[in-house]
Amino acid sequence: MKKYITGIDISKLKLDLCFVQNERVLREAETANTTAAVRQALKAFLKEAGAETSDVPVRAEYTGQYIRPLCCACKDLGIDLWLENPTQIKYGSGTCNVARTTAWMRAKLPLTAFVFRTGHACTVCRRKT
User: Fold this and answer.
1) CB 102: neighbour CB atoms within 10 A?
2) CA triple 20-25-30, angle to 5 deg
3) pTM
C-alpha cells in the first residue's frame, strides 16, 4: 500500500495541488475552485496513481469560505481532509519566516505532516520544530 499526501493551496478562483509520496513531489496541478473541478482533479490523480481514497489524505490551509468546494469534493469521494491553521503553518512548521509563494506552499504543506510528527529540523535555519 502506497501512502500519498496531497497539499492544496486555496485561493478564491483556483486551487494549486501538489501530490507527494515519501517527501517526493509526484505531480502538481492547478484547477478551478469549484466542487466539480476539484473532484475531477482528485479522481484523475487517484486513477493515475492506482490509489485508494484512504491512501491520499488532503491537507489544506483553512481559508474561510474558499474551502467549501474542496470540502464538498473530499466528502463526495470519501477522502480525509485535514485543515491546518495558517498561523501554525507559517510560524510553527519549521519554515521560519521564509516568504511564501504558491510554489513554496504547494511543496511545503504536504511535508508539514512529516515535520510535525518527526520533529525534524527546519531546512532553512536548522532549528528543531
Assistant:
1) 13
2) 90
3) 0.70
The secondary structure of residue 60, as a DSSP letter, is: E
Residues 6+ apart with CB under 8 A from 93: 108, 112, 115, 116, 129
d(CA 88, CA 85): 5
1 or 122, higher pLDDT: 1
pLDDT, one tens digit per residue, over 31-54 is: 999 999 999 999 999 898 888 888
**DSSP calls for 5-50:** EEEEEE-SSEEEEEEEETTEEEEEEEEESSHHHHHHHHHHHHHHHT
Q: Which three cell numbers stand for residue 17?
A: 495541488
pLDDT surpassing 50 at residue 9 = yes
Contact status, residue 9 vs residue 16, Cβ threshold 8 Å: yes
**Burial 24-39, CB ≥16 within 10 A → b, else e:** eeeeebebebbbebbb
Pairing status of strand 14-21 against strand 58-61: unpaired
Nearest to 70 by CA among 99, 35, 98: 35
pLDDT of 95 above 80 = no
Residue 21's beta-bridge partner residues? 24
